[in-house]
Write a structure and sequence with these properties.
Layout (H helix, E strand, L loop, with lengths): L2 H26 L5 H5 L20 H13 L4 H13 L7 H28 L5 H47 L4 H9 L8 H14 L4 H12 L2 H16 L3 H64 L1
Helix pairs in contact: 3-5, 5-6, 6-7, 6-11, 7-8, 8-9, 9-10, 10-11
Length: 312
C-alpha cells in the first residue's frame, strides 16, 4: 500500500477515534457538560445579565417608562431605597425603578377614574366623589408596594430554604479539592438550580468577580441583594476565612449544619402555628353551621307553639 494511502487511513482513523471520545466525554463526564462549554448564561439568553438593550423593550415597557420618568424621585436616598428593594425582589434591570413608579402612577389613575366611570355610567349619581376617588387613588398607588413587599418576603424564604443545600454542595466541592471560585461556578451552573434565587445570585457574583470586582466586595454585594440574615452571616464567615487563611471546608461544614438546624426550626415553628391559624377560619365558617344545627329544632318548636297560640 502506498504511503499516501496509509497516511490518509491513519488520519481518518485518528479523527474518528477522537470524535467518538469527545462525544462520549460530553455525554457521560459531568465536568465536560455542554452547559459548561456554552457558558453560564441561561439557555435562550443571548446577552449577559449585566447588559440591557433599550431597543428590545416591548410596548408596555415604553408606556411605563413614559409614566414613571416624570414622577421618578430626584432624591438619591429614595431612589437608592427603591433600587435596593427591587434588587431584593430579584429585579436587576436598571429601569426597574422607572417601571415601578410607572405602575404606581398608572394604577392610581385607573383606580381614581374607575370609580368616577362606575358612578356616572352605572349609578347615574356620584356620592362622595372626591373622598372615594382619593381613597381609590391612594389604594392604587400603594398596591405595588404591597405586592413588592410580599415578593421580597417570598424570595427571601426561598433563599433561606435553599441555603443549607447550597452550602452542602460547596462543602463537597471544596473538600474534593476545588477552590472557592471553582466551587461557586460548579454549584451555580446546576440546571435544576437555575430557577432558585440563590443560584442566580451566586452566578451574578461569579460574573462580577470575572469582570474584575474583588471577591469580598462581590460577596458583600450579594448578601445585600438577598437581604437574608443567614446569607450575611455566611458571607462574613467567608471573608474572615479568606483573610485569616483558615480551613474553608470546616467553615462550610459548620455553617451548613447551622443553616440546616435553622431551617428545621422554622418548619417546626410553622407546624406549631398551624393549629392557631386554623382556629379563625374554623370559628368563622363552622360555628354558624353548628349554631344552626343545634338551634334549628328549638326554633322550629317555638315557631310551631307561637303559630298554635295565634291560631287559638
Amino acid at each position: 500500500m502506498e504511503p499516501l494511502a496509509i497516511a490518509a487511513l491513519s488520519f481518518v482513523f485518528s479523527a474518528g477515534v477522537t470524535s467518538l471520545a469527545g462525544i462520549l466525554l460530553l455525554r457521560w463526564w459531568p465536568a465536560l457538560q455542554p452547559e459548561r462549554l456554552r457558558g453560564l448564561t441561561p439557555e435562550g439568553s443571548a446577552a449577559s445579565i449585566f447588559r440591557w438593550d433599550d431597543r428590545a423593550r416591548s410596548w408596555w415597557q415604553r408606556v411605563l417608562d413614559r409614566l414613571g420618568r416624570p414622577a421618578r424621585p430626584r432624591d438619591r436616598t429614595r431612589l437608592s431605597n427603591y433600587r435596593r428593594r427591587l434588587l431584593c425582589a430579584g429585579f436587576q434591570n436598571p429601569h426597574a425603578v422607572t417601571y415601578l413608579i410607572g405602575v404606581k402612577v398608572g394604577l392610581m389613575g385607573l383606580c381614581a377614574l374607575g370609580y368616577a366611570f362606575y358612578g356616572v355610567a352605572v349609578q347615574r349619581v356620584v356620592p362622595s366623589f372626591l373622598l372615594v376617588s382619593f381613597v381609590s387613588a391612594a389604594a392604587g398607588f400603594f398596591l405595588p408596594d404591597f405586592w413588592l413587599r410580599n415578593r421580597i418576603r417570598a424570595r427571601q424564604r426561598e433563599i433561606a430554604r435553599a441555603l443549607p443545600d447550597v452550602l452542602d454542595l460547596l462543602m463537597v466541592c471544596v473538600e474534593a479539592g476545588m477552590g472557592l471560585d471553582a466551587a461557586i461556578v460548579r454549584v451555580a451552573e446546576q440546571p435544576e438550580g437555575r430557577r432558585c434565587p440563590l443560584h442566580q445570585e451566586l452566578l451574578r457574583m461569579h460574573l462580577e468577580m470575572r469582570a474584575g470586582r474583588p471577591r469580598e466586595e462581590a460577596m458583600r454585594a450579594m448578601a445585600e441583594r438577598t437581604g437574608v440574615q443567614e446569607v450575611e452571616t455566611v458571607v462574613g464567615a467567608f471573608v474572615q476565612t479568606d483573610r485569616l487563611g483558615s480551613n474553608l471546608g470546616k467553615t462550610l461544614r459548620v455553617h451548613a449544619e447551622s443553616a440546616r438546624v435553622q431551617r428545621r426550626h422554622r418548619a417546626e415553628e410553622r407546624a406549631y402555628l398551624a393549629p392557631l391559624k386554623m382556629l379563625f377560619p374554623t370559628v368563622a365558617f363552622l360555628m354558624p353551621s353548628f349554631f344552626l344545627v343545634g338551634m334549628a329544632p328549638s326554633l322550629l318548636k317555638v315557631a310551631e307553639i307561637l303559630r298554635t297560640m295565634s291560631g287559638k
